[in-house]
Amino acid sequence: MIDEKVAIVTGSSSGIGLATAKRFVKDGYKVVLNSRSESDLEKAAGEIGNDRTLIAAGDVSNTDDVERIIAQTVNTFGRIDVLVNNAGVAMFAPIDELSYEDWNKQIAINASGPFYMIKNALPHLEKTQGCIVNVSSVSGLGGDWGGFGYNASKGAVSLMTKALALDLPARGVRINAVAPSLTDTDMTEFVMANAQTIEKFSERIPMGRAAQSEEVADVIAFLASDDARFVNGVILPVDGGLKASNGQPKI
């Protein structure tokens, strides 16, 4: 067990973030739960166990909030070993329909949020020789129809991960990312509820279904573990084989 290790998981009141927090607690970590809603975090902490978690509500796109989250973590637990940047939003619309506000929101939360969190957590991760796992997306590896804003924000996460993987190991810190395809979460509820859309996804994903949050969380836990101690700069698809295709149609 690794009772002294501490992980921060942003966007951890539901979905992949909550599943990741649960997995880390199972593995013996103390976990800092973050989202913008304190009440949602209290519910999540109740599911996990309040004795192993710390609630740090805040908006990762707000630098004051980020500084407070990091300070609260260190003041309470004394260290940071793992940072998981999971908080995210998605708005799909053609360019002439996507508002400036929605563009800015996606960039702020999906791309600037990880930057702010990494920048502020890095001095503490250096002390523990810790690691970072970003949650990108297959949408950060290629384009989606009507998804250019989300693609841009997640593409930024993917290339941020690769670029930092060149710089951070000299400071004793590894960084990797997961790139899930469709995952059954609250954020994708509108997709999961549409039988026709699910059928289309199932045709494209060789394993024939969406991922469960726990399946993504298990990969995040692996990348954060000592088993992945020589893995750095990887954007690992967790997609049931979706990216194995060269894009040509099935005949």
The CATH superfamily appears as NAD(P)-binding Rossmann-like Domain
Question: What's the SSE pattern?
Answer: EHEHEHEHEHEEHHEHE
Distance between the termini: 50 Å
State the major sheet: 7 strands, parallel
Question: What's the architecture, going by CATH?
Answer: 3-Layer(aba) Sandwich
Helix content: 40-55%
Contiguous runs where pLDDT drops below 50 for at least 5 residues: none
- How would you classify the helix and strand content by structural class? alpha/beta
Counted beta strands: 9
Main sheet: strand order? 3-2-1-4-5-6-9
Strand content: 5-15%
Average of the residue pLDDT scores: 94
Shape: globular
CATH topology label = Rossmann fold
- So how many helices? 8
Summed up, the domain count is: 1
Rg over C-alpha atoms, rounded to the nearest angstrom: 17 Å
CATH class reads: Alpha Beta
Would you kindly provide a written description of the structure presented here, covering whatever features stand out?
The protein is of the alpha/beta class and 251 residues long. The chain has a single domain, classed as NAD(P)-binding Rossmann-like Domain (Rossmann fold, 3-Layer(aba) Sandwich). 45% of the residues lie in helices and 14% in strands. The strands form two sheets. It has a seven-stranded parallel beta sheet with strand order 3-2-1-4-5-6-9, with helices on both faces. α4 runs parallel beside α5 (148-167). The radius of gyration is 17 Å and the shape is globular. The model has no long low-confidence stretch (mean pLDDT 94).
